[in-house]
Design goal:
By secondary structure, the protein is an all-alpha fold. The protein has 4 helices and no strands. The protein has one domain.
Length: 125
């Protein structure tokens, strides 16, 4: 998965993208207060979740650990979203960057696992 979250040129844009990502991670697919619910961020996160679901079919032994990581990230993101406005801007920037990194890393792992699982299936005789 490409670096879809941190391509924004400013801190404000990064914060808005994080808010959209956190909304998606917490399972809310409706339009959020940032107005970014229909953005590329939402689409990329939906693709990440769809890829995770596909892993269940092509690499079921790896689905459980990845699902556990994804669910844990969603829980933590939901908690952070509730607390975010109560911390300083510097703390927001730091923790926003952490979540952007964690989402990108997990989605890259999911993408790679799916690709390897599909390639193994394609090479099976």
């Amino acid at each position: 998965m490409t670096s879809c979250f941190f391509s924004a040129p400013s801190r404000v844009s990064a914060s808005l993208l994080l808010a959209a990502a956190l909304t998606m991670l917490t399972g809310c697919l409706s339009r959020d207060e940032t107005g970014l619910a229909g953005s590329k961020t939402r689409t990329d996160l939906q693709l990440c979740k769809a890829q995770l679901d596909a892993i269940k079919q092509v690499a079921p032994e790896q689905f459980g650990p990845l699902q556990k990581s994804f669910a844990g990230l969603m829980r933590n993101a939901a908690q952070y979203k509730q607390l975010r406005t109560g911390v300083t801007n510097g703390t927001q920037e730091t923790v926003d960057a952490l979540y952007l990194y964690r989402v990108n890393l997990l989605c890259a792992d999911i993408n790679q696992t799916l690709l390897l699982g599909l390639s193994k299936k394609g090479n099976a005789e």
